[in-house]
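so my prof wants the structure for this chain in the tokens format not the other one, which i didnt know existed until like an hour ago. anyway here's the sequence
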Amino acid sequence: MFARSTLRRGLMALLAGLMSLPVAAEVDSSQRPLETQVQDIKQQVLSLNRDLFILEEELLFPTNTQVAVFLSMNVGEFFQLDAVKLTLDNKTVTNYLYTERQVDALHRGGVQRLYMGNVKAGEHELVAVFTGRGPEGRDFRRGTTMTFNKDSESKHLELKIVDSTAKQQPQFSVKEW
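here's what i got, hopefully its the right format
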């Protein structure tokens, strides 16, 4: 927590210092309308903000410890998603409740980042529990588990929910990218 607040304070100080630079450089170009100068400064601030966000992500989640978990769906008939509970190494890392609009976005091909965090190198267990409405409108709760090995590269895992027409049930799996 201390490192995060120190990082944020340092980034904000850097942003404040850099924001003053474009204004000083633009003083000489007084022939340009003030509105154009303001727009240029806004663009520079937006670009700087994006760069700071990327830097913060890289500092908080370095590649050698980064794990990201995503959710995708290819269902419609056999399962209506209500919630997902994600556990990593017997520790709950996220509980997510879905609105109708969010489920609709997933049905249309959207992918949601459920979790992004840091783990040590070695073997880890990911457990995802899905709750919702299954066939014939009944309450449905099903889980899937994956053991993965974390090395020095970032790890990306995808939770997939797919309709199985042969079984008339949804299938839940984990895919490693």
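also thought this was worth mentioning. Strands lie at 66-74, 80-88, 91-97, 111-118, 122-133, 139-150, 155-164, 169-176.
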